[in-house]
Amino acid sequence: MKSTTLFARSALGALLAAAPLAQAADVYVGATYGIVDMDDIDTDGSFTSDFTTGEVTGVSPPLTIPSGSPVSWETELDDGDGFGLVFGMNFELFRAEIEYSWTSNDVDSHGGVNAAGIALDGVDAGVLLTGNVGDLGVTTGELVGNGQGEVETSTFFVNGYYDFKNDTKWTPFLGAGIGYANIEIEYEPSNVGIIDDDDDVFAWQIMGGVSYAINEQFEVTGSIRYRETDDAEFNSELLGAEFDIETETLTYDLGIRYNFSF
To answer: Using one digit for the tens of pLDDT, what is the confidence trace for 48-60?
Structure first.
């Protein structure tokens, strides 16, 4: 989290430094709640050392998969929750703000497990355990299919907005932002820990919505935002493998802003 914290401090400094550029700058703080639709994740990686499979029906004797061989599966996620806090400045038609947000999506299921080109969903799950001899009585597909786990993301963004001012209390807006995301992934299907790791990566977002002025101080907002991160790296101690994972989300937000001047 060090790089994320450094980015947040730098962003706050830059935003505060911009204040003298405007006369009687309007400042606002706000909070949002959203429904987070995260795209299914392609969990793609490779073994970081030679991996010896367990001995099960159809895989006897055990196989030794060389280091560097691919291993992958697909992860489906449930819709999740997202919360955000913002601090910004209003410069006529333009706004600049810093944003902190947190989102969480539960894992629905995994599937399509493949190692070194070998489809494992229909193979006994004992194949995943080095040193195992004999069938466990459950296939790899059944073991990972019940999901369990979650993907949590904490982000810091610097955002810019353009407000389409008009003579009504409704103000449409468009915006974009860049920042850092700390992604924490826990995959624990059938209580078997596969991945429990986190990484900091670059992130960006675009958003559009509308605000409604209740009075001079308070506004309610509704927006849709698309957010994407660079590939994050995660380790699996169980498999001795490293994975590159990219996240994409579409979030439907409701929020409130409080405006004041200084």
So the answer is: 999 999 999 988 8
Q: What is the pTM of this model?
A: 0.85
Q: Domain map of the chain by residue range?
A: 2-38+75-121+148-261
- Asked whether the beta carbons of 32 and 255 are under 8 A apart, the reply is yes
- Cα–Cα distance for residue pair 197/185, rounded to 1 Å: 6
User: 192-202: string of b/e by CB count within 10 Å (b at 16+)?
Assistant: eebbbbbbbbe
Question: Read out DSSP for 48-85?
Answer: SS-EEPPBBTTB-SPPEEPTT-EEEEEEEE--EEEEEE
What b-and-e string marks burial along 78-100, b requiring 16 or more CB atoms within 10 Å of the CB?
A: eebebebebbbbbbeeebbbbbb
CATH class of 2-38+75-121+148-261: mainly beta
